[in-house]
Amino acid sequence: MQQPHEQAVQSILNRLQRIEGQLRGIQKMVADERDTLDVLTQMSAVLAATRRAAGAIMKQRLTELAEAEDGFSAEATREMHALVEAFAKLD
After folding, report:
1. Which end of the chain has fewer CB atoms at under 10 Å, N or C?
2. What is the pTM of this model?
3. What is d(CA 18, CA 77) in angstroms, rounded to the nearest whole number?
4. 40-60 per-position pLDDT tens digit
Protein backbone atom coordinates (compact mmCIF):
# COMPACT_ATOMS: atom_id res chain seq x y z
CA MET A 1 0.00 0.00 0.00
CA GLN A 2 1.27 3.47 -0.89
CA GLN A 3 2.12 5.99 1.79
CA PRO A 4 0.12 9.26 1.88
CA HIS A 5 3.03 11.21 0.33
CA GLU A 6 3.37 8.70 -2.51
CA GLN A 7 -0.39 8.77 -3.09
CA ALA A 8 -0.36 12.57 -3.26
CA VAL A 9 2.53 12.56 -5.73
CA GLN A 10 0.78 9.97 -7.90
CA SER A 11 -2.43 11.99 -7.83
CA ILE A 12 -0.54 15.11 -8.94
CA LEU A 13 1.19 13.17 -11.73
CA ASN A 14 -2.19 11.84 -12.88
CA ARG A 15 -3.55 15.40 -13.01
CA LEU A 16 -0.56 16.56 -15.05
CA GLN A 17 -0.96 13.66 -17.47
CA ARG A 18 -4.61 14.57 -18.00
CA ILE A 19 -3.57 18.17 -18.68
CA GLU A 20 -0.98 16.92 -21.14
CA GLY A 21 -3.70 14.95 -22.93
CA GLN A 22 -5.94 18.01 -23.02
CA LEU A 23 -3.12 20.04 -24.58
CA ARG A 24 -2.56 17.40 -27.25
CA GLY A 25 -6.28 17.56 -27.98
CA ILE A 26 -6.08 21.33 -28.37
CA GLN A 27 -3.13 20.97 -30.74
CA LYS A 28 -5.21 18.60 -32.85
CA MET A 29 -8.15 21.00 -32.77
CA VAL A 30 -5.93 23.82 -34.06
CA ALA A 31 -4.39 21.57 -36.72
CA ASP A 32 -7.90 20.52 -37.80
CA GLU A 33 -8.93 24.22 -37.89
CA ARG A 34 -11.73 23.68 -35.39
CA ASP A 35 -13.95 26.53 -34.27
CA THR A 36 -11.99 29.16 -32.32
CA LEU A 37 -14.58 29.31 -29.54
CA ASP A 38 -14.25 25.54 -29.03
CA VAL A 39 -10.46 25.84 -28.87
CA LEU A 40 -10.64 28.68 -26.37
CA THR A 41 -13.13 26.75 -24.25
CA GLN A 42 -10.71 23.84 -24.07
CA MET A 43 -7.83 26.20 -23.27
CA SER A 44 -9.87 27.61 -20.41
CA ALA A 45 -10.35 24.09 -19.08
CA VAL A 46 -6.59 23.48 -19.24
CA LEU A 47 -5.89 26.70 -17.35
CA ALA A 48 -8.37 25.72 -14.63
CA ALA A 49 -6.89 22.23 -14.40
CA THR A 50 -3.39 23.69 -14.18
CA ARG A 51 -4.45 25.94 -11.31
CA ARG A 52 -6.00 22.97 -9.51
CA ALA A 53 -2.80 20.96 -10.01
CA ALA A 54 -0.76 23.86 -8.64
CA GLY A 55 -3.08 23.98 -5.64
CA ALA A 56 -2.58 20.25 -5.04
CA ILE A 57 1.20 20.66 -5.24
CA MET A 58 1.08 23.55 -2.81
CA LYS A 59 -1.24 21.68 -0.44
CA GLN A 60 1.10 18.68 -0.41
CA ARG A 61 4.13 20.80 0.43
CA LEU A 62 2.27 22.73 3.13
CA THR A 63 1.18 19.42 4.64
CA GLU A 64 4.80 18.26 4.69
CA LEU A 65 5.88 21.47 6.39
CA ALA A 66 3.09 21.25 8.96
CA GLU A 67 3.94 17.64 9.80
CA ALA A 68 7.66 18.27 10.20
CA GLU A 69 9.00 17.25 13.59
CA ASP A 70 10.34 20.71 14.33
CA GLY A 71 7.02 22.39 13.56
CA PHE A 72 6.94 25.69 11.76
CA SER A 73 10.51 26.91 11.87
CA ALA A 74 11.45 30.33 10.52
CA GLU A 75 12.70 28.64 7.34
CA ALA A 76 9.42 26.73 6.94
CA THR A 77 7.47 29.94 7.46
CA ARG A 78 9.52 31.69 4.75
CA GLU A 79 8.93 28.78 2.39
CA MET A 80 5.17 28.91 3.06
CA HIS A 81 5.14 32.62 2.26
CA ALA A 82 7.06 31.96 -0.97
CA LEU A 83 4.58 29.21 -1.92
CA VAL A 84 1.61 31.49 -1.39
CA GLU A 85 3.23 34.28 -3.42
CA ALA A 86 4.07 31.90 -6.28
CA PHE A 87 0.53 30.52 -6.25
CA ALA A 88 -0.91 34.02 -6.37
CA LYS A 89 1.07 34.72 -9.56
CA LEU A 90 -0.61 31.84 -11.43
CA ASP A 91 -3.29 34.15 -12.76
Report:
1. N
2. 0.79
3. 32
4. 999 999 999 999 999 899 888
